[in-house]
């Protein structure tokens, strides 16, 4: 079995598998390779199971084709897309009458590669714009409930995380959150706001999350399922 070994200053050895199916072992500098090989062998069933899940998700995931008939997620619901083709000086996206309308220059529309790339960029711009409204407003609402206050809230184009909280109490969100159900979004916001009280993932932290989102375990698992597709945008 192929795997990467990363030597670190940490005291323990751990195994992780990223979204591309790369098995990584994080180990202290003094741990011998034979120990790592034995650890991989002991966890072979777990590794194989997770690699199979990743393979299955890749095979079953939807494709961002941006053709008529494709649907686009927004706040947990799927909406049809419509193309308006013309000699537009600028490509544009609007959400109108429960439909995503893409106004594209004909040369762009006829080139499938350019159409997909342009539509992806337009959609990400849309999510970021809407996220700067919805995510900021909802964060302020939940801050009052939890009794905390962030310094700054930003919506960014990142793929590895859904949200983060800095040491300066700044909250960052992945623009792709705007694809998700509102209860999923609430969980991510609550998660980051609870980091203003607990800077780790200790039992105290999760107890705090549970106060405001008692089904967070299920939501975390659900997010992993839908997030695999969302992060391909």
UniProtKB/TrEMBL annotation:
It comes from the Bacteria. InterPro entries: UTP_pyrophosphatase-like (IPR053136), YgjP-like_metallopeptidase (IPR002725). Coiled coil: none annotated. Gene3D superfamilies: Metalloproteases ('zincins'), catalytic domain. It holds the Pfam family YgjP-like. Residues 11-224 form the YgjP-like metallopeptidase domain. This is YgjP-like metallopeptidase domain-containing protein. It comes from Clostridium fallax.
């Amino acid at each position: 079995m192929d795997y990467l070994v990363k030597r670190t200053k940490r005291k323990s050895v751990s195994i992780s598998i990223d979204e591309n199916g790369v098995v990584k072992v994080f180990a202290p500098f003094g741990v011998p390779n034979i120990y790592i090989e034995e650890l991989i062998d002991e966890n072979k069933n777990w590794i194989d199971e997770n690699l199979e899940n990743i393979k299955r998700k890749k095979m079953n995931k939807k494709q961002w084709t941006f053709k008529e008939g494709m649907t686009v997620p927004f706040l947990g619901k799927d909406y049809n897309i419509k193309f308006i083709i013309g000699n537009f000086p600028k490509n544009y996206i609007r959400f109108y009458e429960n439909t995503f309308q893409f106004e594209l220059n004909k040369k762009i529309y006829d080139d499938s590669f350019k159409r997909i790339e342009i539509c992806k960029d337009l959609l990400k711009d849309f999510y970021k714009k809407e996220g700067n409204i919805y995510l900021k407003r909802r964060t302020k609402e939940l801050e009052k409930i939890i009794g905390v206050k962030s310094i700054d809230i930003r919506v960014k184009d990142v793929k590895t995380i859904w949200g983060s909280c800095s040491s300066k109490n700044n909250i960052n969100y992945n623009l792709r959150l705007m694809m998700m159900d509102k209860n999923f979004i609430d969980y991510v916001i609550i998660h980051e706001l609870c980091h203003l009280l607990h800077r780790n993932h200790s039992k105290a932290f999760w107890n705090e999350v549970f106060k405001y989102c008692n089904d967070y375990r299920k939501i975390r698992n659900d997010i992993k399922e839908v997030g695999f597709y969302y992060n391909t945008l």
